[in-house]
Amino acid sequence: MSKIKQKIRAASDLARELVEVPEWDVTIEVRSMSARQRSLFAATIESGQNETDVTQRLERLWSSVFLTCLFDPDTNEPLFSDEDMDWLFVEKSGVVIDRVANVCLEVSGLKEKAVDEAGKSSLDSPIVMGESTPSDGSTSI
User: Total structural domains in the chain?
Assistant: First the structure.
């Protein structure tokens, strides 16, 4: 492998951000999506184009984002599993869920418009690239 490829491979370019969620009285770690995870997220948006139930589409999208981006900062383990998605979307505030999901998208270089577009019947541009990613600081949402 060339020195340039070795340097690229060794570079740590995935963003990590500690985020306080006051309603839950916790600090969570939000990690950016890798290139493959972003591709899978785009595929999730595309695959749901013909779904008529917008609620199910958005829950599937938020689930994908939460499972990919949210981690316990103390253990480095994923914060949620597939099984957690049912209670999360039934028992927790939609406002808080939206805020957390939007931070995940921002840290991943995606804008909120990606999910807004997913709720429509037609997707002209499912993903809008951000100009920059947030810093590695702690944020309260």
Answer: 1
Query: What residues make up the domain containing 89?
Result: 16-135
Residue 7 resides in a domain? no
C-alpha to C-alpha distance for 139 and 141, rounded to whole angstroms = 6
Please give the backbone phi and psi of residue 63, each rounded to the nearest 5 degrees, phi first.
-60, -45
Residue 3 lies in a domain: no
Both tokens of 56, joined, read 């199910």
pLDDT tens per residue across span 60-101 = 888 999 999 999 999 999 999 999 999 999 999 999 999 999
Whole-model pTM: value is: 0.73
Beta carbons within 8 Å of 32's beta carbon, 6+ residues apart: 14, 15, 16, 69, 107, 108, 109, 133
Contact between 107 and 66 (Cβ < 8 Å): no
Rg (CA), the chain: 16
Inter-residue contact 88 to 67 (CB < 8 Å): no
Q: Enumerate residues 6+ apart whose C-beta is below 8 A from 123.
A: 45, 46, 49, 117
> Is there a domain that residue 82 lies in?
yes
CATH number of the domain enclosing 123: 3.30.2220
